[in-house]
């Protein structure tokens, strides 16, 4: 159970986000548009958590891994679960700060 919670919140085993990005992975900020405007990762697209399910078909068409982040890792963990249940390769990077550190 603890492993599941760690992975859900972005604290579990880490993928190589830098390599995934270099290979064309999509970087998605699942925070609100207001949070995104305040600060976001260069090159990220803003798809708030409440719109993720509506975008599943678009992600499936792109056939690329998706790296998700938010403020704490909670929303991006939920988004990851939604996308993975639709057969999309998705990763929870946790917070914006964690994502920035992973891409250094």
Q: What's the helix count?
A: 6
Structural class: alpha/beta
How many structural domains does the protein architecture include?
1
Strand order of the largest sheet: 2-1-3-4
Q: At the first level of CATH, what is the class?
A: Alpha Beta
- Integer average pLDDT: 91
Q: Any idea what the shape is?
A: globular
Descriptive account of the structure:
The model has no long low-confidence stretch (mean pLDDT 91). This protein starts with a helix and ends with a helix. Helix 5 (74-85) links the parallel strand 3 and strand 4 (90-95). It has a 4-stranded parallel β-sheet, sandwiched between helices. The chain is built from 6 helices and 4 strands; from the N terminus they run ααβαβαβαβα. The protein has a single domain, classed as Rhodanese-like domain (Oxidized Rhodanese, domain 1). The protein has 104 residues and is of the alpha/beta class.
SSE order and pairing:
Elements: H1 2-8, H2 17-22, E1 26-29, H3 33-38, E2 45-46, H4 56-62, E3 66-70, H5 74-85, E4 90-95, H6 96-102
Parallel strand pairs: 1-2, 1-3, 3-4
Give a short overview.
By secondary structure, the chain is α/β, with parallel strands linked by helices. The protein contains six helices and four strands; from the N terminus they run ααβαβαβαβα.
Give short descriptive properties of this protein.
alpha/beta; 6 helices; 43% helix; four-stranded parallel sheet; Oxidized Rhodanese, domain 1
